[in-house]
Design a protein that fits this description.
By secondary structure, this protein is of the alpha/beta class. The chain is about 35% helix and about 20% strand. The protein has three domains: about 110 residues, 3-Layer(aba) Sandwich (Cobalt-precorrin-4 Transmethylase, domain 1); about 100 residues, Rossmann fold (3-Layer(aba) Sandwich); about 80 residues, 3-Layer(aba) Sandwich (Cobalt-precorrin-4 Transmethylase, domain 1). α4 packs parallel to α5 and α8 runs parallel beside α9. The protein is flat.
Length: about 325
């Protein structure tokens, strides 16, 4: 009988999903905080997490960023306040202007696109149905672009099927940018069956980064024994990646770092897929790979489904430093 020496590690093939990790909107938002710190000096206040990632937030705190939930926590000292990539309601911007705060808007331009579309629909007399998750900062910000009652949140196919409206003739829909492509399409199809004349966006609202990362996971998940998605639990796009992996046939875990790995899921695997949400830095992916390299003899292959070259300019208040 051949007995393997104790120091011989079992082989593990890692398929790295590409694209993964930071998108252009996240890069812009993080850069905005760092540029503001360079221009104005600390402290720089940030309303809500600039992006949904604990590692990123903690790193910015060490540089002098102070994160607050509401503007009332920002003192009248002249220090700038940055709005997160998820966007804010118009009432928040109005409050900042009323207090003469130096507000810098780091809302992702693709979220701003949804805001503008919703406002155009409203001006044209349409009621807006927003497909998204209740309480998510992006949804709160989008609904806050219009007067109370002008936007109705639709969270599921069942909600779309049973929605009762007094006027069904002037409707439009928009979607949160970080949804599951499959889930959102099912809700949109239910809405269009329920309201055949509903108006959709000229170009779909789910952003390129969400689309590309989900496509890569869909390709990799059937080829591996399990999947790890690096990201935060409050990150919508990261949670959707985990769901996509599981629907594609692979057990999946969402982790913020190596300390959260559930080794009971990954102890006996021969192949592993790794992806990362749009707000997760690559250093965390490397940390996860190092953790597996301590237990396995790893080989790494990158599976690429799209090339990304998108970039967004910094907020106008910070462009002189770019």
């Amino acid at each position: 009988m051949n007995v393997q020496p104790r120091n011989v590690k079992p082989p593990l093939k890692i398929l790295l999903c590409s694209p993964r990790g930071f998108c252009a909107g996240v890069v812009r938002a993080i850069d905005a905080v760092e540029r503001a710190l360079a221009k104005f000096g600390p402290p720089v206040y940030v309303r809500h997490e600039i992006v949904h990632n604990r590692y990123v937030v903690e790193a910015l705190k060490t540089k002098g960023a102070i994160f607050v939930e509401e503007l009332e926590e920002v003192p009248d000292t002249g220090a700038p306040v940055i709005f997160s990539a998820h966007g804010v309601a118009k009432s928040v911007s109005a409050e900042a202007r009323g207090r003469h705060l130096l507000a810098i808007d780091a809302t992702c331009p693709l979220v701003t696109k949804v805001h503008r579309e919703a406002e155009i629909h409203w001006r044209r007399g349409r009621r807006v149905l927003l497909v998204g998750h209740s309480g998510h900062p992006e949804v709160v910000g989008t609904m806050g672009q219009l007067p109370d009652g002008a936007v109705i949140l639709v969270e599921s196919v069942e909600a779309a099927r049973t929605l009762a409206l007094k006027d069904e003739s002037n409707l439009a829909y928009a979607t949160q940018t970080t949804l599951s492509l499959d889930d959102s399409q099912a809700v949109i199809e239910a809405l269009t069956r329920r309201f055949p004349h509903i108006v959709g966006p000229h170009k779909e609202d789910i952003c390129y980064a969400t689309t590309n990362r989900q496509a890569a996971v869909k390709q990799v998940a059937p080829l591996v024994d399990a999947v790890i998605v690096v990201g935060s639990p409050n990150s919508s796009n990261s949670q959707r990646l985990r769901e996509v992996a599981e629907r594609s046939g692979a057990p999946a875990q969402l982790v913020q770092g190596r300390g959260e790995i559930d080794w009971s899921i990954f102890s006996d695997i021969a192949s592993l897929g790794i992806s990362a949400g749009a707000s997760a830095p690559e250093v965390l992916v490397e940390e996860i790979m190092d953790a597996f390299a301590e237990r396995f003899e790893i080989t790494v292959e990158t599976i690429s489904t799209a090339d990304e070259s998108v970039s967004f300019p910094l907020p106008k208040e910070l462009r002189a430093l770019a």
